[in-house]
Amino acid sequence: MLASHAVLLVGHGAPPKDFPRDLVSRLKALEGRRQATSGAMGDEERELDAKIRDWPRNAENDPYREGLLALAEALRAKLGGAPLFVAYNEFCGPSIEVAVADAIAHGATSITVIPSMLTPGGVHSEVEIPAILAELRAAYPAVTLRYAWPFDLQRVAGMLADHAREIG
Fold it and tell me: Are 133 and 145 in contact (CB under 8 A)?
């Protein structure tokens, strides 16, 4: 059983390099149509989404996933023992919904959701993730879901400046 508080790191996600490109295009077309009409996900889009999220991953076919997992390990070491879960906004599993359910199943009653997207202006961090969290709050009213975004851009700039100085 986990401590009652957990952290969820959310990455964008990327299609694996060996996933059929025509299926990625079809998925994006269906997603675009759904978003334009504010409709619900249809069966074909749901099937393609599941297929791409469940695709076998490794360092060669999904270097983005490997990078997010490396960030997760570095973050885990700085959380003072708070359990850390990883999720992806699209293309990769687990989804935010699945990762939140997993954290809850392991005893989390409070979850801080941290996206890896650093700057404002993106649809994922400003629209999609908040919408998913609103649905999850309704589905799990006894669980506190905090969204740790937007980031303080002065702190982000400081981290980037420190890194630039370190590499010369």
Answer: yes
In whole angstroms, give the CA distance from residue 53 to residue 129: 17
Question: What's the chain's length in residues?
Answer: 168
| Strand spans (E) along the chain | 5-11, 84-88, 110-115, 144-147
DSSP state of 103: H
**Taking a C-beta distance cutoff of 8 angstroms, is the pair 84, 9 a contact?**
yes
User: Which domains are seen in the chain, by residue range?
Assistant: 5-15+71-167 (3.40.50.1400)
pLDDT in tens, the chain (168 residues): 556 999 999 999 999 999 999 999 999 999 999 989 988 999 999 999 999 999 999 999 999 999 999 999 999 999 999 999 999 999 999 999 999 999 999 999 999 999 999 999 999 999 999 999 999 999 999 999 999 999 999 999 999 999 999 998
- What number of H helices and E strands is found in the chain? 7, 4
- DSSP class per residue in 107-133: T-SEEEEEES--SS--HIIIIIHHHHH
